[in-house]
């Protein structure tokens, strides 16, 4: 999802030569807390209710506006906008196209939308966040690896004990996997149903070992009611440098996720714990 999908397009602006009184009246009438300042179609500043508070009403907007406007493009992702808001400690971003303002995105609107992309059951981000995170790491010229973990025969637990108990297991699976990850450089998401995925900046060999620790942790954990939970993992990555194309990071990420997913399917089919895309089976267990 992009900023353009949630921004307010009914943009109310003011010119720098208007009075503070006019700006206050406009904000009150439109029930908004800020006005992009636009001269001849160009964004030259922003004035907020805080900026005009205490200012003499006869002063000009140019005297009280801030010129260091933080902007975002309409094509930016919601997470890119979120990072801008948090980095600058502000409540809204002016959306621009070709240096002209086309909308406003507020912190409350943005956070409400991002909240929809967090899995309500496990508290993990969903697949879209992982894809965005992986693409950002590639843009930063970092190598990445993707681990795709699919629980084995999880439907049997749902059928035998019910979906409420199955949901409890999924929450415990998410907690167990998250405890294995480093605080930085690794991101876990609930990809779909009983599928989980990790993107990591660790080298491929370390990613393979992490995948093995994940499936081993599931297999050796004491689960409620004595049920058995196992998973099969696929790993892809560590060899993208030559084939990488700048500006096409999303395609590269999709390719990695697809390869890791297929590798996990191969692992499940062949009853192996971890399979690396294009590589041989990893059989060593990690305590």
TrEMBL record:
Residues 7-64, 65-120 form the CBS domain. It comes from Desulforudis audaxviator (strain MP104C). Residues 142-280 form the GGDEF domain. NCBIfam families: GGDEF (TIGR00254). This is Diguanylate cyclase. InterPro entries: CBS_dom, CBS_dom_sf, Diverse_CBS-Domain, GGDEF_dom, Nucleotide_cyclase, Rev_trsase/Diguanyl_cyclase. The keyword Lyase does not apply. Pfam families: CBS, GGDEF. Keywords: CBS domain. PROSITE patterns: CBS, GGDEF.
């Amino acid at each position: 999802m992009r900023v353009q999908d949630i921004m307010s397009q009914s943009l109310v602006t003011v010119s720098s030569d208007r009075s503070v009184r006019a700006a206050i009246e406009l904000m009150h009438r439109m029930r908004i807390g800020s006005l992009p300042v636009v001269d001849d179609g160009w964004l030259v500043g922003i004035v907020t209710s805080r900026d005009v508070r205490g200012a003499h009403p006869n002063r000009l907007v140019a005297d009280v506006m801030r010129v260091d406007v933080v902007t975002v493009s309409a094509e930016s992702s919601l997470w890119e906008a979120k990072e801008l808001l948090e980095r600058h400690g502000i409540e809204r971003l002016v959306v621009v196209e070709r240096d002209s303002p086309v909308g406003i995105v507020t912190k409350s609107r943005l956070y409400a939308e991002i909240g929809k992309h967090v899995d309500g059951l496990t508290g993990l981000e969903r697949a879209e966040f992982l894809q965005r995170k992986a693409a950002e790491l590639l843009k930063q010229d970092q190598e990445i690896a993707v681990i795709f973990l699919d629980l084995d025969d999880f439907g049997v637990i749902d059928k035998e004990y019910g979906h409420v108990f199955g949901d409890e297991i999924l929450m415990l699976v998410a907690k167990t996997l998250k405890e294995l990850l480093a605080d930085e450089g690794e991101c876990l998401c609930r990809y779909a149903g009983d599928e989980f995925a990790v993107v990591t900046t660790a080298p491929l060999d370390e990613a393979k070992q992490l995948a093995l620790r994940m499936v081993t942790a599931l297999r050796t954990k004491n689960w409620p009611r004595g049920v058995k939970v196992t998973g099969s993992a696929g790993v892809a990555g560590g060899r993208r440098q030559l084939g990488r194309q700048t500006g096409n990071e999303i395609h590269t990420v999709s390719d990695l996720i697809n390869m890791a997913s297929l590798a996990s399917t191969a692992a499940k089919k062949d009853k192996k714990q971890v399979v690396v895309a294009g590589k041989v089976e990893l059989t060593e267990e990690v305590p």
